[in-house]
Amino acid sequence: MSVKRNLLLLSNSTLHPTGYLEYAAEDICQFLRGRKVEEVLFVPYALRDQDGYTAKARSVFESWGFRLHSVHEAENPALAASNAQAIFIGGGNTFQLLNSLYENKLVDVIRKRVLENGIPYIGSSAGTNVSTISINTTNDMPIVFPPSFNALGLVPFNINPHYIDTDPHSTHKGETREQRIEQYHEIPGTPPVLALREGSILKVEGDNAMLIGKFHARLFVPGKETKEFPTGHNFSFLL
């Protein structure tokens, strides 16, 4: 059975000095309009103030001409996801987000809707983390403990959003982001990690994955030298 992925995976929601989702507005609008989407289901579980988070997202999407409803407002979240034209999962704490997805029985529903039915999926930060195999390469603190670190599995690799390059002049002695990803790869059988700097977006259509946005990305593969890839690079070999 062919995979019908339609994903727009953002490293972050806000890029200095612009507003919420402003840097990705053109990409998001083209992505949704090209698929005849009129209404988006928002998943605000990564933050505690879900009413406020929804109002923020709704204001932006409505300004673009889309209706937006939140899954936390639905009487039956799984049914809402089953009927959604498109799904947007916002950023925040990845552990809280994934835990809520499990609690509301949404993991399997979203996976089926995206991979089998082909509905558009937009993830930002934590929403991008949960689109991958697992949340093992999130930058967040484990403020809650989900039943599993296994995530939606919409792509067969991991992503590290908000990737920060090592500053050679820094006096900070904690692990760098690069070192933490390399520590992850010390565990046998771990998948590649695509490190997305803020302002970077991975667009996945079926078996094609293209880096768009403003910056290069770094690819970490166990046992291989880390490589830099420019905007426009095709990452389909990871799928």
Quick overview:
The protein is an alpha/beta fold and 239 residues long.
Task: Describe the 3D structure.
This protein is of the alpha/beta class and 239 residues long. 26% of the residues lie in helices and 20% in strands. A seven-stranded mixed beta sheet has the order 3-2-4-5-1-8-9, with helices on both faces. Strands 6-7-10-11 form a four-stranded mixed beta sheet, with no helix packed on it. The model has no long low-confidence stretch (mean pLDDT 96).
> What is the count of helical runs?
7
> How far do the termini sit from each other?
15 Å
Strand fraction equals 15-25%
Mean pLDDT: 96
Largest sheet: 7 strands, mixed
Query: Order of helices and strands, N to C?
Result: EHEHEHEHHEHEHEEEEE
Content-based structural category? alpha/beta
According to DSSP, the number of beta strands is 11
Which term fits the overall shape?
globular
Q: Which residue ranges are poorly predicted, with pLDDT under 50 across at least 5 consecutive positions?
A: none
Write the layout of secondary structure elements.
Layout: E1 6-10, H1 25-33, E2 39-43, H2 50-63, E3 67-70, H3 77-83, E4 87-89, H4 94-103, H5 107-115, E5 121-124, H6 126-129, E6 158-160, H7 177-184, E7 193-196, E8 200-205, E9 208-213, E10 217-220, E11 227-229
Parallel strand pairs: 1-5, 2-3, 2-4, 4-5, 6-7
Antiparallel strand pairs: 1-8, 7-10, 8-9, 10-11
